[in-house]
Amino acid sequence: MPTHMKPPVSGAASEQELAALIVKTLHLEVAPDELDPTTSLFGEGLGLDSIDMLEIVLSISKRYGVELRSEDRAAFASLRALTAHINRRYTT
Question: What pTM value is reported for the model?
């Protein structure tokens, strides 16, 4: 494994941890604790687009070993929905 890649973490994802991952991945100018876990990630909410979603999917795959598919689109409704989805699909 290349040294720049972290192995999947052990344990479930938390909303705070996932918020930090999203902020870091997308270079957002907000603190992770400023992200409302129930706000939509796309459109009127955080305003992310499909390119942002691809970047998040790659980061989640590297960090948690969870592969997200196009049919998992509902998981991106909010930070809370995404965290729950990752925890349901998490592989150790």
Answer: 0.81
